[in-house]
Amino acid sequence: MIQLKNVSKYYYSKGMIASGISKVNLTFDIGEFVVITGESGSGKTTLLNVISGLDSYEEGEMYIDGKETSHYLASDFEEYRKKYIGNIFQHFNLVNSYTVYQNVELILLVNGYSREEIKKRVPDIIRRVGLEPYTRTKVSKLSGGQKQRVAIARALAKDTDIIVADEPTGNLDSVSAEGIVELLSEIAHDKLVIVVTHNYDQFAQYATRKIKMHDGNVAEDLYINTDAQAVYSDSGITQMASESERIDKDITAGSKVRLGVRNTFNIFPKFMLMLVVFLFVVFSVTSQYTTFRNQEEEEDKLGYNEYFYNYSEDRVVLKKTDGSAFTEDDFRAISNVSNVESISANDILLDVPLYIEDNEFSYEVYPKSLGEFDEPLVAGRLPEADNEVIFTAVKDDFDTGMLERILEKSFKINLGEDKELNVTVVGFAYKPQSSNSFMYSGDLFASDQLMSTMLTETYNYNSTVRTSINGKEQQYQEGNAFYRIVPNSHVESGKAIASEEINNFYDKGDAKGKTITVTAENIFYTQSVDLKVSDTYNKKTFEKKTGVSDYDSNNGTIYVNQADYDTLFNKGNFQASVYVKDVKEMDQTLEALSTMGYVTLPLKDILINMFNELTSIIRVPMTVILIVALFFIAYFVIRLILKSRSAYFSILRMLGLAKRNIRRILDVEMLLIVNIAYAVFLACVISVNTGLINIQYITNLVQYMRITDYIVLYVVLSLMAYLISGKFARSLFKKTAMGTYREED
């Protein structure tokens, strides 16, 4: 039973208030066929919309089975319409892009029926309203009478206690109208049927009650055709079915997906427009991101690092996780890694500036292995002896007229305090200029033996050297000869010759035959050797015992055998560098090297660049602003596209579908289009990478993209689609179902 007590409904428009219905008191029972008449504007449609829950009311109270509804929210009225109301609208309110079958199916999907149940019920209902030949015909191609029959079929499929019909014959010819009236009369036996019409005579022989509205008030309420009423009410039912008897199922997840997918492709022009919008977003975000990455890469080349001379972006410094020295097996394994171009075993020499010089010439050079030399010789020849080298310099810095000055000439290289090497330059080549090379520096390509000697002296120079004499530890200090360790051919292996001043460390003043321990410690290793003092020297005996003439500069030096010296400092390579072929594949290379047990340091990631840091601060908010701007651009365009379908979503509301379910259908539609747009984007990427297409714009886009970037892009697009869906769904529910429909109609 439905009861209205002093119910009033008002409309607000541009500051004006108009009364729809005023102080209406009515009661309706199951089994009645109620016809509401009145002139246009009398309030009959407003009354019908209030009864069916399509419109709210401002005053009074409406009871459903004795329960008050004044506290109902929009969601409560949606649930009420879903359970109790079957609507038949004057303008049909069908989905024109759906077939007859799909329109009837829609109401069953909304009410949670399974596909099997739907397949059984829908054909029977369509047959009942006489539309079986039009089952697969789109509603847009039907006549007015046929459309109204579809609307009735939809109401029948819902199988609710109440059928409300607003001018069901208003747009039909007399023959079609008569068929609709008879059809309504057939379904009115065990339901409450309420019809609003201008033409009462069409329904007179079937009506059990006539209500006439005038100026928003009930002007007449007559019970008529009692015989018909007795037939309709033969069971004596005056109350709607209880909730325990009612099928109360929600739309299934599968049905939401089904409707979302159907709506995506149902109107192809709409689908294409939305696809273009999301493709625009995909390519815009990617284009901006790759532009930033390109700028970042160019700015990185302007950076520097005070610890490394050669900080080219393709260089990766390696150490072994266990801290041990590299072996030939290590280098062979590394060379087999994909994307590794070359290996520099003597890594620490790459960042140690040396000078080749004589009395008239001096030039800064960085030593490299002869095996790394791959430039064409400008003059001279390749080295043949261990002390022969190739010298390279930047072309703009070195005049070929100077070649006579350096070729086949001997130069010395200072490796530290009082440690020199003599080399002969036998070849010259131009050094490639790079953005991170110093203009006034060259490279010196030397034999492995010479490189080993330089590496040994580099370890010496960069080590803390301590000597333990009779339990007292003495540390060598640069600039002072005391406790400096120097190899000497006059010393036997395992022995040492030291200044006689170390005699003072012993009680009897004699260090001969005593054992001293020399320890070298640096960032790579700690190494000690025990040496027996075989002799001591003073100023008179110095040259005889050591073969060195300059006593004053070397007094305090501890002379050892070359083998013991090598034990301390000739330890091999604890650090190496690899150069990659493609910097864009650096991450995969680093991952492969890490898996093999190496600690990696890509130098491109440790450059200091104040300009880059400044632009990064600006770049992050710019990216956020761009994404937000794209979101609103996409939202407003998509909203315009979806606005053409607001009537569809309003129909879903009228049929009782809750906000959350409509939102999920929208989510499916948006996310499906995003996935298609993203798939198109990936297809373009794959086509470019495989050479199927050659579009420079797309090539430029994808060259900076990594796997993580594709994942982030997909997440951003999905989130954007989800937010657009939510924002549009909220706009749909700002008004009542009828209010939204009127606005979009």
Automatic annotation (TrEMBL):
<dbReference type="InterPro" id="IPR027417">
    <property type="entry name" value="P-loop_NTPase"/>
</dbReference>
<protein>
    <submittedName>
        <fullName>ATP-binding cassette domain-containing protein</fullName>
    </submittedName>
</protein>
<keyword id="KW-0547">Nucleotide-binding</keyword>
<keyword id="KW-0813">Transport</keyword>
<dbReference type="GO" id="GO:0005886">
    <property type="term" value="C:plasma membrane"/>
</dbReference>
<dbReference type="InterPro" id="IPR003593">
    <property type="entry name" value="AAA+_ATPase"/>
</dbReference>
<dbReference type="InterPro" id="IPR003439">
    <property type="entry name" value="ABC_transporter-like_ATP-bd"/>
</dbReference>
<dbReference type="InterPro" id="IPR017871">
    <property type="entry name" value="ABC_transporter-like_CS"/>
</dbReference>
<keyword id="KW-0472">Membrane</keyword>
<dbReference type="GO" id="GO:0022857">
    <property type="term" value="F:transmembrane transporter activity"/>
</dbReference>
<keyword id="KW-0812">Transmembrane</keyword>
<dbReference type="GO" id="GO:0005524">
    <property type="term" value="F:ATP binding"/>
</dbReference>
<feature type="transmembrane region" description="Helical">
    <location>
        <begin position="707"/>
        <end position="725"/>
    </location>
</feature>
<dbReference type="GO" id="GO:0016887">
    <property type="term" value="F:ATP hydrolysis activity"/>
</dbReference>
<feature type="transmembrane region" description="Helical">
    <location>
        <begin position="670"/>
        <end position="695"/>
    </location>
</feature>
<keyword id="KW-0067">ATP-binding</keyword>
<dbReference type="InterPro" id="IPR025662">
    <property type="entry name" value="Sigma_54_int_dom_ATP-bd_1"/>
</dbReference>
<feature type="transmembrane region" description="Helical">
    <location>
        <begin position="620"/>
        <end position="642"/>
    </location>
</feature>
<dbReference type="InterPro" id="IPR017911">
    <property type="entry name" value="MacB-like_ATP-bd"/>
</dbReference>
<keyword id="KW-1133">Transmembrane helix</keyword>
<dbReference type="Pfam" id="PF00005">
    <property type="entry name" value="ABC_tran"/>
</dbReference>
<feature type="transmembrane region" description="Helical">
    <location>
        <begin position="267"/>
        <end position="285"/>
    </location>
</feature>
<dbReference type="InterPro" id="IPR015854">
    <property type="entry name" value="ABC_transpr_LolD-like"/>
</dbReference>
<feature type="domain" description="ABC transporter">
    <location>
        <begin position="2"/>
        <end position="240"/>
    </location>
</feature>
